[in-house]
Write a structure and sequence with these properties.
Helix content is about 50%, strand content about 15%. By secondary structure, it is an alpha/beta fold. It folds into two domains: about 130 residues, Rossmann fold (3-Layer(aba) Sandwich), CATH 3.40.50; about 70 residues, Winged helix-like DNA-binding domain superfamily/Winged helix DNA-binding domain (Arc Repressor Mutant, subunit A). Strands 2-1-3-4-5-6 form a six-stranded parallel beta sheet, sandwiched between helices. β1, α1 and β2 form a beta-alpha-beta unit. The radius of gyration is 17 Å and the shape is globular. The termini are far apart.
Length: about 220
């Protein structure tokens, strides 16, 4: 059974998520009211997924996500956000989050998202990703350098990375490149291994930061 830790400073929000997840057969092993508590409970309870809010007292969800990664914990972080927090979403991806959702997500989507992330996949909500790319990744900070591992990728692997960066699924990549799904999975695995990336979400960040995706001007 998938073990979930809830991290949100609003008790009613946590209660609502707990009810939804438990009715779906997931095991909510703990609740945290801030990021520091989330890190502490994750160390102690060893959840599969941490459902992480961004804005919390003491320590926000971004820093908590970063510390979970630095601690080498196996928990994967699913960040909850709103459209007015695009920069926080980008920061969360850089910190190691495995996915993000809008905070007003419906119950079925929430349950599916938790299960998807627990299974080792990443979750990129298309409308959020589109806004993220448009407003922030289109103009990355100047200190970001092209990852050295890109030189180890073949031309086909670079193309697969570009398509991952565009938010395409394995099936969509297979159709785009006219290759088998099994071949796409092999290429994706090699890309993640060579770039030492945890999952596809981090691959999206790398694709944009390294300039593999053409940058478009942000709209007002």
């Amino acid at each position: 059974m998938t073990r979930v830790l809830l991290a949100d400073d609003q008790e009613l929000v946590r209660a609502g998520f707990r009810l939804i997840l438990e009715l779906a057969g997931l095991d909510v092993v703990g609740e945290a009211g801030d990021g520091a508590e989330a890190v502490e409970l994750a160390r102690r309870l060893d959840p599969d997924v941490v459902l992480m809010d961004v804005r919390m007292p003491r320590m926000d969800g971004i820093e908590a996500t970063r510390r979970l990664g630095q601690a080498g914990l196996r928990a994967r972080v699913l960040v909850l956000t709103t459209f007015d927090l695009d920069q926080h979403v980008y920061d969360a991806l850089q910190a190691g989050a495995s996915g993000f959702l809008l905070k007003d997500v419906d119950r079925d989507r929430l349950v599916d998202a938790v299960r998807t992330v627990a299974a080792g996949e990443s979750l990129l909500a298309p409308p959020v990703l589109a806004r993220l790319v448009e407003h922030y990744v289109a103009s990355p900070p100047p200190e970001l350098a092209r990852p050295s591992g890109l030189d180890e990728l073949s031309e086909r692997e670079l193309e697969v990375l570009r398509l991952i960066g565009r938010g395409m699924s394995n099936a969509e990549i297979a159709a785009e490149l006219v290759i088998s799904l099994a071949t796409v999975k092999t290429h994706v695995r090699h890309v993640l291994q060579k770039l030492r990336l945890r999952d596809r979400v981090q691959a999206v960040v790398v694709a944009y930061e390294s300039g593999l995706i053409p940058k478009t001007p942000a709209r007002g």
